[in-house]
Automatic annotation (TrEMBL):
Keywords for the protein's UniProt record, in alphabetical order: Chloroplast, Plastid, Repeat, Ribonucleoprotein, Ribosomal protein, RNA-binding, rRNA-binding, Transit peptide
Protein name per UniProt: Small ribosomal subunit protein cS22
Origin: domain of life: Eukaryota
GO MF terms, alphabetically ordered: mRNA binding; rRNA binding
Any Pfam family hit: RRM_1
Annotated signal sequence range: none
Similarity comment: Belongs to the chloroplast-specific ribosomal protein cS22 family.
One of the protein's GO biological processes: chloroplast rRNA processing
Subunit architecture: Component of the chloroplast small ribosomal subunit (SSU). Mature 70S chloroplast ribosomes of higher plants consist of a small (30S) and a large (50S) subunit. The 30S small subunit contains 1 molecule of ribosomal RNA (16S rRNA) and 24 different proteins. The 50S large subunit contains 3 rRNA molecules (23S, 5S and 4.5S rRNA) and 33 different proteins.
GO cellular component labels: chloroplast thylakoid membrane; ribonucleoprotein complex; ribosome
InterPro entries hit by this protein: Euk_RNA-bind_prot, Nucleotide-bd_a/b_plait_sf, RBD_domain_sf, RRM_dom
Localization in the cell: Plastid, Chloroplast
Tagged with keyword Transit peptide: yes
Length: 245
């Protein structure tokens, strides 16, 4: 029996614990149980060090507001600009961490804007000063830090929209930029007729645009003129769609 126990212990690297029968019952076979060896102290310490390192790295993750000071909005870029070309535009002003052109998920076409993240706030500021309002491919681009790209708006108390005057002479305006307000939309279409009213559709209770709106006129001729003139033109850096509503 001793030889058998030694063989098993050597094969499985296990500690053995033998519970033999009492001397008064020599005929009862001995029972042998095995339990796995506890992990080595060195392995335990290594695991603990790894856990501490993970916690430490998680603690220093950059806060979103800090990232926003290095992330730049780049608007009104040509449709042909790629991610690599966008990065190259900013490479002279620091280290480009990431550059991404935004594309329409349905058409696959560039939405004529993108985002560039620089490695430091100083580089982001330098790139903004150097590149904002400069021409790329015949277009004057817009460069802003993302945290200040949109005006500061109190989401808890959005300003009420002017009352919309409906009419049978109405157009639908789609693919509106997030920056387009009702006043901007009305002024834009006033060039081709007497605009009775305009509205930008928004998420209820917030100033967030849904990306479309309506404009009403006083005659069918003005509607036809608005569609033929403004469909597939640009408003606030995006190509809008205009159709009879």
């Amino acid at each position: 029996m001793a030889t058998t126990i030694s063989s098993l212990a050597a094969t499985h690297s296990l500690h053995r614990r033998c519970c033999r029968s009492s001397p008064s019952s020599p005929s009862t076979p001995a029972r042998v149980s095995f339990r796995a060896a506890p992990p080595a102290a060195g392995a335990t310490r290594a695991r603990r060090r790894a856990a501490v390192q993970v916690l430490a790295s998680s603690a220093v993750l950059e806060a979103p507001e800090e990232l926003a000071t290095r992330k730049l909005y780049v608007g009104n870029i040509p449709r042909t600009v790629t991610n690599d070309e966008l990065a190259a535009m900013f490479a002279d002003h620091g280290t480009v961490v990431r550059a991404e052109v935004m594309y329409d998920k349905y058409s696959g076409r560039s939405r004529r804007f993108g985002f560039v993240t620089m490695s430091t706030v100083e580089e982001a500021n330098a790139a903004t000063e150097a590149l904002n309002e400069t021409e790329v491919g015949g277009r004057k681009i817009k460069v802003n830090v993302t945290e200040s790209f949109l005006p500061n708006i109190d989401l808890s108390a959005p300003e009420p929209e002017p009352a919309f005057v409906d009419s049978q002479y109405k157009v639908y305006v789609g693919n509106l930029a997030k920056t387009v307000t009702t006043e901007v939309l009305k002024n834009f279409f006033s060039e081709k007729g007497e605009v009775l009213s305009a509205t930008v559709s928004r998420v209820p209770g917030t100033p967030k645009s849904k990306g479309f709106g309506f404009v009403t006129f006083s005659s069918d001729e003005e509607v036809e003129a608005a569609v033929s003139t403004f469909n597939n033109t640009e408003l606030e850096g995006q190509t809008i769609r205009v159709n009879k509503a």
